[in-house]
Design brief:
- The radius of gyration is 30 Å and the shape is globular.
- 36% of the residues are buried.
- The protein is built from 28 helices and 14 strands.
- The chain is of the alpha+beta class.
Length: 678
């Protein structure tokens, strides 16, 4: 199965424009490099011009990210990045470094190497001396001895004026006395608490150091990867040139340590570190959970299975669709116990035994390719334009998400596409009939990720086309349901209430580091708890608790985030090893599988901010699954729910409510589970 002819036309046109266009950043006069830095790179065999070329490349990449986040036209910015990279790589090649990572690493090492070049300091002094006293120079020049006499005369009056320029760094007020007093003020710019918190986060515990040593890894690798994780999170949240530069430096430092330890790249290194930290000695008995959940709580199928320390009246319904009928907790009021779900009807069909059985009535008779319809090439701005129903109102926008009010509910729309694309990818857009848009991501390995969006931005279809032409269908919604999706209608309204006729232990799986990956694979291999009437879009599942309840839940015990933060630390990433390994095992069986990563918050705080924080945490976990374990980004979907689906019905801060939930959605979204033909 090959991409459409219009796709190849778009690829050819864009490639030609990249070759012919002039760089957008090449405007104005170039800024001369710092003399010390120029001498450092020259000593390492680089041309001083590489400093300006690198600065231009970083600025071009930052501009591209900002435009992408704003949904603007990025064609010019992409051309600028391409031209800037060509210029930078040419200078790298001249210095003997044909690849960017090795070139940047050597360049950073050159800039960090002290250079005993005092002459550079001397060259600055003559520049400062003639500036304050240009007129007196005419008299003392003929005579060398009297120079000492005329100097006090110009120093008396002209000296205060020129002193304002040399003292610009420490003394903005142009006075000699306040200058030293302002030095402590500069310390406030980087917040001391943040610095201390960052230092605390990269400390290696004795237990982790011992595990790393047992695997033959130095503790410095863990610190470097942690700093890289922090830099990536900061660059994603605020993609400024400084943040991108910090990310690049952190990546270069981590790569150097990983290569010194014998790893070819960061991914292999990150996986080895995660495996080392997740290792549990065989002679170490698994400790019991911090709070034991009674067996009776695991056997029932009505409310969440909670520790005995949680009052029974605070146990929320286990199904999200039943949580929606529960009033949110109010400070100072006692919550009524959830009503028991009605008994299933006498003729209730037992749960399906396999994915194929669950999909028996849902798979269309004919499956069309994602590139079957001929499209018309459009620019990025038009291709990324998203409408929304008339009664959907934007409440607040963040860097990579937007909070919308619809049907008296608030929900957040993230940006999964930001995780799918990489700098080396090429992205094209085509307009289709009915206001739909097709996005084509061409990857260096010859594969394509093709997504068809509705006019409101919902994913109607998504396929991965492999280099050999095989098409892996990740999402497939039949055309007859497209109109309902345009109105953001909940397909769960057409279904009767869901009756959970299995114990909670068979519906919710709690992962801890001492369980094997095979246990989770066995749990996740189970089909949905009810047969599927049709295939759904991932956006329908995000917005419909009734449809989402069909998929069993997986939760990671004690996955902690810093207070008010979405960043996941190295020590927490290792807790995802079992989840990641299970995902990879299931994707080996069927690459059409898709996993939902849900972020949840507790009740304190603003609803909007809790939505944003929970979305950011879900994004962070999904990114970690890709960066550290190699789970393909397009097989991961994220959604933040804030405080809407509490596990413990309390308005107070509650750790059990701050959680990340995983669901396997493949049988609900892809037709490739009715058989093994893929």
């Amino acid at each position: 199965m090959r991409p459409s002819s219009s796709l190849f036309a778009a690829i050819a046109a864009t490639s030609l424009s990249v070759l012919c266009a002039s760089p957008a950043w090449a405007q104005g006069d170039p800024v001369p490099p710092d003399p010390v830095m120029a001498a450092q790179v020259e000593a390492a065999g680089f041309s001083p011009d590489i400093l300006a070329a690198r600065a231009a490349l970083i600025a071009a990449e930052a501009a591209l990210i900002e435009i992408q986040a704003a949904g603007g036209d990025v064609v010019t910015a992409e051309l600028a990045v391409a031209e800037a990279e060509v210029t930078f790589l040419a200078l790298c090649a001249d210095a003997g470094f044909p690849e960017r990572p090795s070139c940047e690493l050597s360049l950073d090492l050159a800039l960090s190497t002290p250079l005993p070049a005092e002459e550079l300091v001397v060259t600055e002094e003559p520049v400062v001396e003639p500036a304050p006293a240009e007129e007196p120079v005419a008299e003392p020049v003929p005579v060398e001895e009297p120079v000492a006499e005329p100097q006090p005369e110009p120093m008396a009056e002209p000296q205060p004026e020129p002193m304002a320029e040399p003292m610009a760094e420490p003394a903005p007020e142009q006075t000699a006395e306040p200058a030293p007093g302002e030095e402590p003020v500069a310390v406030e710019e980087p917040m001391t608490t943040q610095e201390m918190e960052a230092v605390a986060q990269v400390q290696v515990s004795p237990e982790d150091a011992a595990k790393l040593a047992a695997a033959g890894l130095p503790a410095e690798i863990l610190i470097a990867l942690e700093e890289l994780n922090q830099a990536r999170a900061a660059a994603r949240q605020t993609p400024t040139p400084e943040a991108l530069e910090n990310e690049r430096l952190a990546e270069a430092a981590a790569l150097a340590l990983c290569q010194a330890a014998g790893f070819p790249d960061l991914l292999e290194c990150q996986r080895a570190v995660a495996e080392a930290l997740a290792f549990v000695p065989q002679d170490a008995p698994p400790p019991p959970p911090a709070e034991v959940i009674p067996e009776a709580a695991l056997e029932q199928s009505i409310v969440e299975a909670l520790p005995e320390s949680v009052p029974p009246e605070e146990a929320a319904p286990v199904l999200d669709s039943q949580k929606e009928d529960t009033q949110p907790p109010v400070e100072g009021q006692t919550q009524p116990e959830p009503e028991a779900q009605a008994a299933p009807p006498p003729d209730a069909v037992p749960p399906p035994q396999t994915d194929a059985e669950a999909q028996a009535a849902a798979v269309p008779a004919e499956i069309q390719s994602a590139n079957a319809e001929e499209g018309q090439p459009i620019d990025r701005e038009e291709g990324r334009r998203r409408d929304r129903p008339d009664d959907a109102n934007v409440v607040q926008e963040f860097n990579f998400s937007i909070v919308i009010e619809f049907n008296n509910n608030l929900f957040i729309r993230g940006n999964d596409e930001a995780r799918y694309t990489h700098p080396q990818d090429q992205t094209f857009y085509e307009s289709l009939s009915g206001g739909r848009t097709r996005e084509i991501i061409q990857r260096p390995d010859g594969s394509y990720l093709i997504t068809i969006y509705s006019r409101n931005g919902d994913v109607l279809r998504r396929s991965k086309i492999l280099p050999d032409g095989r098409e892996i269908v990740l999402v497939y919604v039949e055309e007859q349901y497209w109109e309902d999706m345009d109105q953001w209608r909940d397909p769960g309204d057409d279904l009767p209430p869901l009756y959970l006729n299995i114990p909670v232990r068979e519906y919710v799986y709690n992962v801890n580091p001492y369980e094997t990956d095979e246990d989770l694979v066995d749990f996740w291999s189970q089909p949905p708890v009810q047969s599927v009437d049709r295939l759904y879009s991932i956006d329908e599942i995000r917005r419909s608790a009734r449809i989402r309840d069909l998929a069993r839940r997986v939760e990671v015990d004690d996955l902690n985030f810093a207070f008010g933060s979405a960043q996941i630390s190295q020590s927490e990433i290792r807790k995802l090893a079992a989840v990641a390994n299970a995902m990879l095992a299931l994707l080996d069986r069927n690459p059409a599988d898709t996993f939902l990563v849900e972020g949840h918050a507790d009740a304190p705080g603003s609803i909007v901010l809790n939505l944003q924080l929970s979305q950011a945490r879900a994004d962070g976990v999904a990114q970690a699954l890709t960066d550290y374990f190699g789970v393909p980004a397009e097989n991961l979907i994220t959604q933040g729910y804030g405080e809407r689906y509490l596990k413990v019905m309390t308005p107070a801060a509650e750790r059990l409510n701050r959680r990340v939930v995983f669901r396997r959605l493949g049988p609900l979204t892809s037709p490739q589970f009715a058989s093994n033909d893929f």
